[in-house]
Amino acid sequence: MCVGFADGSCHALAAATAPVLWPAPLGVTARADFASIGPMTTPPPPKAAGQRGFFPMPRGDRAFLVVILAWAVVALLPWARDTELGGVALLGWLMAGLMVLSPAVALGRILIARRRRRRDGGAG
Q1: Considering only CA atoms, which of 33, 72, 19, 100 is closest in space to residue 80?
Q2: What separation in angstroms does the CA of 117 have from each of 43, 58, 59, 102?
Q3: pLDDT digits (tens, 9 = 90+) for 2-61
Q4: What dihedral do alpha carbons 59, 65, 67, 69 form, nearest 10°?
């Protein structure tokens, strides 16, 4: 089945993934037109040598992400629930620290990167 639009175009991918709507939205009609579906997608262009398939991430951002994940894992270990510090479980202290420090460090990294771009002559 193909989802046909008011302009007469047919979008097979939308028909394959979208739920059946009844009644059809304004301007959208459904029709059985298997001959006009054609290939579902076009192949991606070939990658250049050494090119990765994901967006580039600075080394500092990767380290920041790893530290946040490690902090969260340590905070959720069983011993962090039983250990108390000042009448509050260590889990609470670690989560509060994560909640306060991670946005502060991320904002600091953004501001530092912006200053470097301006200093180096880039836009931003």
Answers
A1: 72
A2: 36, 14, 16, 23
A3: 555 556 565 555 555 555 545 555 555 555 555 555 556 666 667 766 666 677 888 888
A4: -150
Tokens describing residue 63: 């380290």
Q: Which two tokens stand for residue 37?
A: 């579906």
Looking at 1-124, list the stretches that DSSP marks H as alpha helix, in order from N- to C-terminal side. 12-17, 59-75, 78-82, 90-119
Tokens 């200053």 -> residue: 115
C-alpha to C-alpha distance for 5 and 33, rounded to whole angstroms:
13
- DSSP designation for 31: E
The CA distance from 34 to 3, in Å, is 11
Residue with tokens 């953004």: 110
Q: Would you call 3 exposed, middle or buried from its count of C-beta atoms within 10 A (0-12, 13-18, 19+)?
A: buried
Place of tokens 């029709």: 31
How many angstroms separate the CA atoms of 108 and 120, rounded?
18
